[in-house]
Amino acid sequence: FFFKCVLQPTECFLSRPEEKQESTVKAKRRKKKKISDVLQKSAPKPAVPEDLQKLLTQHFGENRSVIELEELQLSDSCFLPANDLTHSFSSYLKEICPKWAKLRRTHKEKKSVVMLVLCSSALRSLELIKSMTAFKGDCRVLKLFAKHIKIKEQMNMLEKGVFHIGVGTPGRVKALVEQDALCLNSTKYMILDWNWRDQKLRRMMDIPEVLYKHLCMLYLCSLLLLVVLRPWSVKFSFC
C-alpha cells in the first residue's frame, strides 16, 4: 500500500508588538508641552530690569542696528523696585509713589496721564482699576483698551479732559501714541502688570500677541526716553 500525503498550505499570522510600542513612543514624542505645564512648575518671582531688557534685545536684535540696540539699553535709574509679591496693588503704588497727592493736584495737561498701567487684557484692566481705589483717591482714571470702547471716543476724552491715570493694553496705548492722541511727556510712572497670570497661568509676556504689542510700545517709549525726550523722567516698575 502506498499512502499519498498532501500538505495543505496554512496561513501564518505574526503579531508585531514591537511596532505598537514604537507607535506609542512616537505619539508621546509628538505631544508638545503646553506653556501652562511649564509655568505651573515655576514659582512666581519679582521681575528685575534684566528681564525686560532681555526681551527687548531678543525681539529686536535681528532687525536693528548696533546703534539702535544701544538706544534700547535702559539704565537702572529708569526702574523702581518691583513688587515683592507681598503688596496689594494699591499698597505697592503708595510705596513707589509717596507724593501722589501732590502730583495729581499739579497735573493740568490734557492728552496725557501721570501714571500709565499696562496689562494683558481689558478684563485685567478693569480689575486693576477696582483694586487701586485706596491709592487713586479722587483722581480721574481713563480706560485705554479696545473692548467696547472706540479709539475715537478715547481720543476725544483725552483732548477735552484731564486724566491722571491710564490703564489699558499696550496695543491701544501704542495706537493712541502713534496718532498723537496720547502724549507721554507728563508721564512719570509706567507700571507693567508683570506677575499676574491668567487661567492658563500665562503672564502678560507669555502671550505672543500681547508680547509683540507690548515690546513695540516699550521700544517706542525707549526712543522717546533716550533719543527724543532726554529730560523725560519716566520710571518703569513691575507689579
TrEMBL record:
<dbReference type="InterPro" id="IPR027417">
    <property type="entry name" value="P-loop_NTPase"/>
</dbReference>
<keyword id="KW-0812">Transmembrane</keyword>
<protein>
    <submittedName>
        <fullName>CMS1 protein</fullName>
    </submittedName>
</protein>
<keyword id="KW-1133">Transmembrane helix</keyword>
<dbReference type="InterPro" id="IPR032704">
    <property type="entry name" value="Cms1"/>
</dbReference>
<feature type="transmembrane region" description="Helical">
    <location>
        <begin position="210"/>
        <end position="229"/>
    </location>
</feature>
<dbReference type="GO" id="GO:0005634">
    <property type="term" value="C:nucleus"/>
</dbReference>
<dbReference type="Pfam" id="PF14617">
    <property type="entry name" value="CMS1"/>
</dbReference>
<dbReference type="GO" id="GO:0030686">
    <property type="term" value="C:90S preribosome"/>
</dbReference>
<keyword id="KW-0472">Membrane</keyword>
